[in-house]
């Protein structure tokens, strides 16, 4: 007996009951409708978020020009090289909660003259403002990614936000472009993505949606497009399942925004355990809460469709990821956590969800790039390692700007006690060169799954694959053992007349390429 899971237009529908019988090899049936290509998967779905929090910026990105750690204009070379491998498309900065207390003018000009402030949200540490607008935009240039600046609506003035945009984007003669030039930057940067506040239902001012909608309209009016650079304005969206926020924002301000930002974190929940301390039950609970993203995206899309049937406004999931208790002995305000194979599975299933909603989800930014929450990279002074989540991002680069192919999946459930979740997650796309890519996650940490894949409209001639898995579900990378979890060749796949077969190992993320 099998539980049936069908992916219809990106939504998972369960039917049937009971898990597969013991010893019977579980089989999943997959149909990839390659003859019905859908919306392009915007590469910005693979975006990132870096806040002035703990050692994300200071120590993680910025070490300063005089550091013995190899750097280019103060920015770590090892970190830039690693992030370039995952083709990071867009980077959100400076917060987070920090954004609504940040005054950008404190972070420009000669560094020795920049005032210090207290980072009240994150550990009460002194922020010396050495990493400011110029440094962030240099970091983006070194990465070859788009900057996404989040402005201060909570405690900043309209004029202040407006002038920041003028400073970075105006090409003519003006007070702000003059100031920029005096600070050594002749040409405007042409910043496209601009957030008008962050979490204004919480740390960004504790506003009601009605009050924020009015504030948004006021501030956004003065976030100008200059020259040919059309600025893309992103409004603060709902906290997890606060659908009323989405409703009010779309009704009151939908016509004046380009994106609406949803925030959703899944974590160790009630147990508040660090990332490496978990039993299989915790594994199940975390993946179940990660899969809640499907419902959040679907329901937000339904509301947005009501007010914006043309899907002009993007759903921007600009904060998401796992949030565990901090690593023992570290500053609780720094949100430093390790990252195991379990976090990699969360990344894999969530990115599949975003891919499957590529018509509306056109940007997402995992929190946070380095040393904070579900990071790509961990550093300790000169040491650096990449995490299992990083490898998922690297494996999924094949989906960047590829055309989504709708999938139908019937797969055994993964059960824990009386609870059940879909045991397999999938998304598929066709790249510009015609190759098909399928990313599959087997959520079950105990059992492999055989996938029978039928492809409609394409007869594949060759298949190759990569897999991310480990013996131990707690496996993670450390400075001493940085390759404990890394992708390897996946040989358990074959093409056949109508498609392919693949045997997914337990607790794995698999990426297949079909030609
Ligand atoms: O990413 C950490 C924090 O989580 C951000 O600062 C805030 O926006 C969210 O609550």
What does this structure look like?
Mean pLDDT is 94; it is low at 1-21. The strands form eight sheets. Strands 4-7-10-11-12-13-14-15 form an eight-stranded parallel beta barrel, surrounded by six helices. Strands 18-22-23-29-25-26 form a six-stranded antiparallel sheet, covered by helices on one side. A five-stranded mixed sheet has the order 19-3-24-28-27, with no helix packed on it. 23% of the residues lie in helices and 29% in strands. It is globular, with a radius of gyration of 23 Å. Helix 5 packs across helix 6 (243-253) and helix 8 packs parallel to helix 9. With 515 residues, the protein is of the alpha/beta class. Alpha-L-arabinofuranose is lined by residues 51, 95-97, 198-199, 319, 367-368, 373.
